[in-house]
Amino acid sequence: FQNNDKDNTQFQVYIECNGTHNYTNAVKFVQTIFDAAYGGAIKMLSTQACSFDLCSIVDTFGSPNPVVGNSMFYIGASTGGSQWASSKVSFRDCNRDLQGPTGSATWDIECESTSDCITVGNYEVRDIPGVSTFFPQFNFHQCTNVLVMNCPDAVITNSGTSQVTLGPS
Question: Which pTM does this prediction carry?
Answer without folding.
Answer: 0.90
